[in-house]
Specification:
Radius of gyration: 15 Å
Largest sheet: 6 strands, mixed
Strand order of the largest sheet: 2-3-1-4-5-6
Helix content: 25-40%
Structural class: alpha/beta
Distance between the termini: 20 Å
Number of strands: 6
Order of helices and strands: EHEEEHEHHEH
Shape: globular
Number of helices: 5
Amino acid sequence: MYLLLGASGVGKTLLLPAQLCSKDGSRELGEPPPTLPTVGTNLTDLLIQKKITIRELGGCMGPIWPSYYGDCSSVLFMIDAANPTQISSSCIQLLSLLSAEQLASASVLILFNKIDLPCYMSLVEMKSLFRIQDIISCANQPITVVETSARDGTGLSDVLQWLRSTLKDPS
């Protein structure tokens, strides 16, 4: 089980259909489908070498995210790179999940989404604001950072590559 987490409105719901429509991350996605804020959870199955299930949890469910950690092998944590007002709350959410004992061995993918918007913060700015290097050096989990646009497909091939890498047999 993979968890897709992040604040409300960061683009989690749009990422999953984009992944399904573009299995190799390279196909033109066309006009994105309309989405509504997730209330509860969405389950999506992807076939990437084998079937994986991604559970998207609505941003408003943040207080109960930990109740889903037990079944989780990897976490995709999405951040809105075009919304500076969400930075501090997203950072707190990220630090909280990284410190969760149940996720100590989970792989983590941090997605800086909405890089297609003219007001997005660059990867350098986002890494600086989040102090990503400090987080990575202190975290127990392997952490990967990717810039994405769930709307236009930028970075989806990197997400798929990360998903594949988490499936590799460690033996």
